[in-house]
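Justification of computing resources. Each target in the renewal requires a structure prediction run like the one illustrated here; the chain below, 339 residues long, is used simply to show the kind of job we budget for.
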Amino acid sequence: MTEPPSREPETRRTGAAPFVLCLHLGAHRTGTTLVQNRIAALHGRLGGERFVFVQNQDLKGQPWAFWCRGRKVEADPDADFERHLAVWRKNGRILLISAEDFIGTTAMFDGRGLYPEAGTRIRRLMRLASAHPEIDVRLLMHIRRTPDFLASCLAQEAAKGRRARLRDPSRIDPAGFRWADLVARIEAAAGQPLVLRDFADLPRLGGRAYTTDLLAAFGLPNPTRLQSLGPLGGAVDALPARIADRIPGLGPWRRPNASLSTRGVALADAMRSHVDAQTWAHVVRPFLSRHFSARTGEPAVTLDPSLAAALDETWASDRAGLADRLAARHPPIRSIARP
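Resulting structure tokens:
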């Protein structure tokens, strides 16, 4: 694929301190919650830098006009962005936003392909940021094996009662679900390369290793202190030892590509048989609700074998073509000149 346009970090003095805006693009079920739980444990410090983290839960009820849409959006996205930027600057020099809706939603089964709104949304954000040459925007997205991704999207749509909106999976054109095309649209809109990571690597890397890898991909310094979080979005390691010790074999919850919903339900089922009723009611159940948002799982969706095979072909082609993005990192933050 063609090389994306280059957007070098602005280093000239503008009177404002350099500000690094790291945006984790939340493709469906690609570990966004894992990112949020682990990065949130940094408690405002990355090395010697003050650090701000905003996750999807922080956005609910307070939509940002510069990327949200619909009746709740404010009339002036430029003013909305300026207000948020002023708050972010007071709290630190580095901001990492992890949100599922920055590139659109999973309601994309109308023939328009993979995240048709992604280019428009990213272009809007980059336009707003371009008014501040001192802002260095860094983009990172996790991609996922296409058949697993599509089956999970269909399951979520069905779980939300949107069956009438679903297209017949056998009629889905695999060519409309190419990660390479989505990456090209995002890079064209942003005017800079997009760093990628494969979702399948998340369980393999685990808690601290995964977090440091993600921060390194953004070019951010290693944290001086980092709470150890486990393969279930922090749930296992955060359990009281007296409870965790009673659960034999955590291996089943480490399997690749298991959704957080699936893992949460499996963990709940295992724990229910290893703790007494009082411990379940007062310790375990509130804990699971906190970490898994009281999810109850999603209905299974099995793709037609021929469709799954075709999607696997596009995935293999995409992954080979995007190998340079998957291995890339943003430049270290220390390379950004201070005024």
